[in-house]
Amino acid sequence: MSAQENEFLNYVLDLLQAMGAVKSRKMFGGYGIFMDGLMFAIIVDDVLYLKVDDESETRFAEEGLSHFVYNRQGKDVQMSFCLAPDSALEDVEVMNEWADVAFQSAVRAAASKR
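Given the sequence above, the corresponding structure tokens read:
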């Protein structure tokens, strides 16, 4: 992990502290951000993406926040994560609002798998 990656990860984790016990785990060439065992955010190439579902996706789309897409065997794969708004990276209260939306999406996704 480069010092720059570590710096951005730590910055995001600091912003999320008010939510509770938020943890990170290296994965997918980036980091998964978890609370209560549920992944509600990812960091890839120093970019934060938040979990979305059918219920929350409209809010992200209205802000022009695109999905995380990666290429797998020559095909683009769209993940259920969207860019976090710049304002969330600048203000703890805004971050907590958006992160809560993402966490609730993760809760609903986990419930639908049961």
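The first helix runs from residue 3 to 16. Try to locate this feature in the token string yourself.
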